[in-house]
Hints:
alpha+beta, Uridine Diphospho-n-acetylenolpyruvylglucosamine Reductase, domain 2, Uridine Diphospho-n-acetylenolpyruvylglucosamine Reductase, domain 3, Alpha-Beta Plaits, 4 domains, five-stranded antiparallel beta sheet, 18 helices, 34% helix
Amino acid sequence: MSALDRLREIFPPSRMLTEAAQLGAYESDALTAFHSRPVAIVIPETQDEVIAAVRICRDTATPFVARGSGTSLSGGSLPVKGGIVIALNRLNKILRLDPRERIAVVEPGVVNTAVTLAAAPHGLHYAPDPSSQTICTIGGNVAFNSGGAHCLKYGMTSNHVLGIKAVLATGEVVTFGSASREQCGADFTGLFTGNEGLFGIALEITLQLLPRAECFHTVLAGYRTLENAGDAVSAIVSSGLLPGAIEIMDALAIQAAEAAVHANYPRDCEAMLIVELEGPREKVAAERPHLDALLAKSQSVETRVAANSAERLAIWKGRKSAFSAVGRLSPDFIVQDGVVPRQRLGEALRRIGEMSRDAGLRVANVFHAGDGNLHPLILYNGRETGALARAELLASRILRMCVEMGGSLTGEHGIGVEKRDYLPDMFSAAEIDFMRRLRRAFDPDEIANPGKMFPGGEAPALAQHGMHPLEAAGVISRE
């Protein structure tokens, strides 16, 4: 019996999609340059149905890809031809919320902000806050170890996941970690977080909750150059201050956000810094003069403080909407994701500007400056012949600059399809081989999200030759 026949025994027609029009909605994630059509989408409503689907894939050697809201920006949830997509959005229950223990146990389809909304009556919140937090799911956040604007102070998803129940690609159901913050032995919870779907599927995630800050102090500072803004970040962090968030937006991003949500950002600046202090009132009051002095020395041309919670929320609404707002400036754009050491932020921004001019492509910069996580948005017109390849080439130059500076290929978006051929720029052959062997320990047959993360032999990269290696192999297709 085929995989599809066995899946039909479990999933009714309303939850097993095979028609072309139905499959089209799932053939791409947020990296829309690449498309691949699976043979079927199954939509489980229980953990047992997820486990059964994975075991059928194991028995029939059918590749599968787990998917939440499809917000991956690296092609991490791109379907595989001949495979199935296991859509997890209906596993959306908060199974337990314990304010005394400060934990929440959730299914993978729970939306990020739903956790904080449920915890808010108890004075608690879930700290990781990616820009897509109103739609992205906890399962996806775990797969890619998502961060967010407040990751400088609070860390990434891996810093907030205490335990995971998962079904591995072998069909085995495992439990890593627990509800306790005091754990010993190998950290399989940390290992699973950020695996990009190559190990299996998380079924339950135990999250730690934190007390909501008593007081916020949010400041906008405008600068004449991006380099000045980057240098200001280095000065703030090296001073010993630990803001809840430090974000940078450049003139293009400011223009787009203003047009979209009217956040009342500083005008006529090449860059803008958002710095937010948070915590007990006494602590914030003590830190404010220190921050004011640092900003006064940073060559800012305008400084503005949010007067109330409404102004603070407007500032963050503009920042969180920046990615989508850039669509007002260009029909197409690539969102890149690399990391540089904080002390070299100013230099990195200057070099991105130079590369942008060399390529003849505009770049809007929006990023988590506190941890050096760059998100350059490369604007192009996909209707122009070769425009995507030129944009990808510029993206590759930016990524290689990050590695050369001692940074990373990714901060939170993952490697996925887009960056897999740059992995040897950062890791040795022996290190990549070790990663492969580790993956096979969880998925010996490599049926879980195949074709992602690891380089595809000697095949050329899209940025250099106009075709991605997975496209050359017939695994994916491109518009």
